[in-house]
Amino acid sequence: MQKMKVAVIGCGSIARRRHLPEYRSHEQVEIVAVCDVVKDRAKEMAREYGGVAYTDYRDLLEDNKIDAVSVCLPNSLHAPVSIAASNAGKHVLCEKPMATSREEAESMIRAAKANDKKLMIAHNQRFVDSHVKAKELIESGKVGKIYSFRTTFGHPGPESWSIDGATSWFFDKERAFIGAMGDLGVHKSDLLRYLLGEIVEVGAFVGTNAKENTDVDDNAVCILKTETGVVGTLAASWSYVSGGDNSTIIYCENAVLRLEDDPDYSLVVEYKNGDVVKNKLQKIQTNEEGGQLNTHVIEKFVECIVNDEVPEVSGEEGMKSLDVILAALEANETGSVVKVDVGSAVV
């Protein structure tokens, strides 16, 4: 079988720690190009992973041999580069948040559809073993009705792992648009939608108090209401100075589900009758581990192209998860509860 030829646009930390290592380990993939505006970074990744080094993504997209690209760039560039890639006949895997507005997200989806190409958003939380197992338990009915939930994603901040450290684009509002909510919160809005269904109302407090010389958010707490009426909280923060928290707790009629909350067991199910089931599953990976080889993001992206299937995290799914975060920003600005439009489709 002929290998799929892929390129990675952007050679920062997420490309180095996830996309490039996972592509290299996939037997159906050949890395044929990398791109970064910093020439030395592009050359370094080309030496390590193979392919041609570019400094301008437009030159890279002219290569007709390339089947698919990963877009690993600052948030403000996700939409324009993804659209250009779709128009150049490439399948696109775009990092999250997929765009900086609903309008940009819709344009990305339209471009992929117009060119009959796949568009997938790199939300990896859906593929974590504990999250998959929790979804199975919820859908089986064994844990009963969902009462409430809380989820949090926090760490010390991008300066601890971004390739540019404290000068990273993450702190530049023009390039990032959004801070911890875009870096971490959107992962959790996607996970909650995966586990519990659509989010229809959002209230939020979003602020900046942990980082200096930036006006992007670094702390946020949101109250979310699902389509079925379940209310819970989502927290996203760059202020967890002693380490990370990537946990989700779901309070159900017959049990409490603790996901990524125990250091040894990825999923702990505490039943109302006193029984406790501890599931020792593959733990969620972090950037601190020096490389992410089994997040399943690349695997799922390749599969959807090879099998001509809708991506498991399609552009539409990525947009719905973005909508929740955009609603949280509006809720904070207006001091009100904001409704999320879950019924509109991109045509």
From TrEMBL:
Q: Which Pfam families match?
A: GFO_IDH_MocA, GFO_IDH_MocA_C3
InterPro entries in alphabetical order: Gfo/Idh/MocA-like_OxRdtase_N, Gfo/Idh/MocA_Oxidoreductases, GFO_IDH_MocA-like_dom, Glc-Fru_OxRdtase_bac, NAD(P)-bd_dom_sf
Q: Which residues form the GFO/IDH/MocA-like oxidoreductase domain?
A: 132-257
Where do the Gfo/Idh/MocA-like oxidoreductase N-terminal domain residues begin and end? 4-123
Q: What is this protein called?
A: Dehydrogenase
